[in-house]
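To close the chapter, one final illustration. This time we ask the reader to focus less on the individual chains and more on the assembly as a whole: which components sit near each other, and how the overall shape emerges from the parts.
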Amino acid sequence: MTTTEFELGWDSESQLPDGNDLATLVEQVWSSYLDGDIAVLGVSTGSAPSALESENHVVGTVSIHGSWSGHLSLTVSHACAELIAAEMFQLAAETITPSEIVDALGELANILGGNIKAAVPQPSALSLPQVVVDARSLTLYRARHVATAHLEWQGNPIVLSLWDATGTGGSRS
Amino acid sequence: VKILLADDSAVMRKIVIRTLRQAGFVGLSITEVSDGRQLVDALAEGGFDLVLSDWNMPNVTGIEALRLARATGYSGVFGFVTSESSSEMANEAKSSGAEFLITKPFTADIFEQTLGAFVP
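The assembled structure is written out below.
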């Protein structure tokens, strides 16, 4: 049995991931699957995240249900989502289809969510990812913002946010 | 070596195949399926030496597929390639008959180290 785990450096017994943890996780995922440098622009913990300036967002979300419940949202511009899908599929950006964007952003949300799940109180289950291709805003019902990391990749903003819905029933469908 | 690759994400299947090549594994015959039900159906037809499976998939999950596969006589290697990275999940995989669990994100080095024991 071989288990490989990334050490993200937070104490899952006593606290939730903060903005720095989210930024580190994005950097690790990007370095594995995407070319080019990714820079951390800033992090916030507790306060609500600021919106992207682009009106045409692609949002990948995944939910965790269990002893701790919540959501993770990965938000990028549509142009950035095309670049991400093109690199992951190794196809030209102009040939990328909406279904390929959904696949790529959904898989990134799944990878990010799986690593967050391992860091929150157990037991819990990870949902399948959902992707909204033309989102103007994101409202998560009965969820409290925990932390956000703002990063930049190839000139495009990347925003990863964690939301707590434990005990509210808001993460259950 | 005949590999059955199960993941509901087409891009992740492509990345896994690319990573196998980067890790130096050549001469592989790879069949792709996109959920656990298709995985079990493909295994029933026989001929596979190794399964690489995602955990969270629609219809039948990877862990359910593993248990079904072992219960119906599949004796080849079964490994997970999944975003699930907790020790609880690794233990559940092992107790259900998996040989290894590779966590996403992964590298070609991790593939080489983990799969080297099972793929010539």
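The beta strands of chain A are 38-45, 57-66, 70-77, 124-126, 130-135, 144-153, 156-164. Helices of chain A lie at 19-33, 78-89, 98-117. With these observations in hand, you are ready for the problems at the end of the chapter.
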